[in-house]
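Listing S7. Sequence submitted for prediction.
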Amino acid sequence: MIIEQDAGALDETNKRNLQRHLHRLAKAAQLSLAKGVLQQNHIRFLLTVNNETKLRREARPEAHRRNGAKHQDDPDNQGSSARASDSASDNVDRYSCN
């Protein structure tokens, strides 16, 4: 259109330069669009992985409680940790060189 009308008035060297610049412009636009699509896909993938991880984290403590596993933050678990520290100190006393 306008470029074709203006290009008709150019000599051969300028026509080649214009053609080279238009080719570069078309290639840059194509790469930019492809990059944007890849970034959108990567963001969508990361959001999916993040949501799956959140679901696993939310479900994990519930499953542990059902199976009888106790967390250190659990107040019912304080007695077992106290017994463990007592038995550890007994073992240290037993093997000391005093």
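Caption to Listing S7: primary sequence and predicted structure tokens for the chain studied. The chain has three helices and no strands. Residues 48 and 96 are 56 Å apart (CA to CA).
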